[in-house]
Amino acid sequence: MTVDRRSFLKLLSAGTAGVGGASLSMAARAAEIMPKSGRRVVVVGGGYGGTIAAKYVRMMDPSIEVVLIERNRQFVSCPFSNLVIAGERKISDLTLGYDKLAAHYGIKVVFDEVTAVDAEKKEVVTAGGSIGYDRLILSPGIDFRFDELEGYDPATTPGIMPHAWKAGEQTLVLKKKLEEMKDGGTVVLSVPLTPYRCPPGPYERTSMIAWYLKNNKPKSKIIVLDANPDITSKAGLFRKGWAKHYAGMIEYRGAKKVTVVNPAGMSVLVEGIEEVKGDVINVIPPQRAGAIAVKAGVVGPDKNWCPVNATTFESTQVKGIHVIGDACIAGAMPKSGYSANSEAKVCATNVVALMNGRELVDLSGINTCYSSITGKEAVSVAGVYKVDQGKIVAVPNSGGVSPDLSELEAIYADSWLRNIMTEMSS
User: Measured between alpha carbons, how far apart are the two ends of the chain, in Å?
Assistant: First the structure.
């Protein structure tokens, strides 16, 4: 069952409240659009984490109603979007809908914008009305800390200096700018301080932009301004790949934090002092948990990410709300699509256990991140995770990086994408 927000846009007539007759807030006026008839789990966010959480709650207890709320009618994968930028994939290869998932598992999908969460009333408020829940799972992904970049206008700067860190339109904007750049041009790519979504992502993007330039505009170069002192993931393999395939094309500069952007002048400033100009500038802003996590009050003291119970992924800030995926603080587990998938399964298992008075199950998590070096070669890093003294830690000697650049790793990566997206969509 899918529910379009326009079909349920039922707001109570405006009223007044309190001294001075101030208008009631939208949250207070939002009509209930889907009355509860039994136990219900609401999942917000239809990405790598949310789809799997919704699916597994229904699989483990079909008596629990599951409502999945997502603002977009189609999901576009961030993993592999760097290959779209390089012309090695089409955006359609990374796009899926929700119809099969909804039909196969009886998940009710609401396409709407979540505007608030009332934890006391156990209601999610959307633009179309409110939806009650017994347990809430948030998988809101990331948003950006634009305020840390002087000169950055969220409305206009992404069209000039695309971040492309949320796949879809921004991916295509960056791709088009590379295509339009003259041969001999300079690409500038900025990397924020960790933590951010997909630790090896900026370095894979560097590789794939270099791959595109090598094959189409070989006189061009890339300057990487990394706020971190060194490459944060698979450093040895990336350096080896760059030396093998892109000698003289990639200029990597560590400990170079971009603090000011100048879209009109097509330049950035490092620590407000050193100016770097580019023909194409890919600014990846600092990040935090998605906006709804902030509105729900589940962001921790750092004001960026959401602390959770390592076993249940229940927020340590607000009872009854669970947070998975990039938005949560999951100990040693990186912010990745595969981590979100793994966290979702454990969270769903324990949400069902909590709702049925059953014993909880500790996390046994896995993650693999594949990174393309060329259109044919890739590298990977893998890890296995467990809960130890209330924290998620890496199991000793359980993972590591691939031994070398390999065409076989690229085949494994392709298989991983097909399998995980099939699991999400059917």
Answer: 14
Q: What is the pLDDT of residues 253-289, one digit of tens each?
A: 999 999 999 999 999 999 999 999 999 999 999 999 9
Domain locations along the chain: 2-143+288-361, 149-285
Which has the closest alpha carbon to 80: 420, 422, 402, 414? 414
How many Å apart are CA 273 and CA 253, to the nearest integer? 15
CATH number assigned to the domain covering 149-285 = 3.50.50.60
Cβ-proximal residues to 215 (8 Å cutoff; 6+ apart), any chain: none
Q: Which alpha helices (H) appear in 256-305, and where do they start and end?
A: 291-295
Three-class DSSP labels, 110-152? EECCEEEEECCCCEEEECCEEEECCEEEECCCEEECHHHCECC
Determine the number of helices (DSSP H) and then strands (DSSP E) in the chain: 11, 28
Q: Which fold has domain 2-143+288-361?
A: FAD/NAD(P)-binding domain (3.50.50)
Q: Is the pTM of this model over 0.90?
A: yes
> How many whole angstroms separate alpha carbon 141 and alpha carbon 421?
17
Check if the beta carbon of residue 114 is closer than 8 Å to that of residue 30.
no
Quote the radius of gyration of the chain (alpha carbons, Å): 22
- Interval 10-59: pLDDT, tens: 322 222 233 233 333 444 457 899 999 899 999 999 999 999 999 999 99
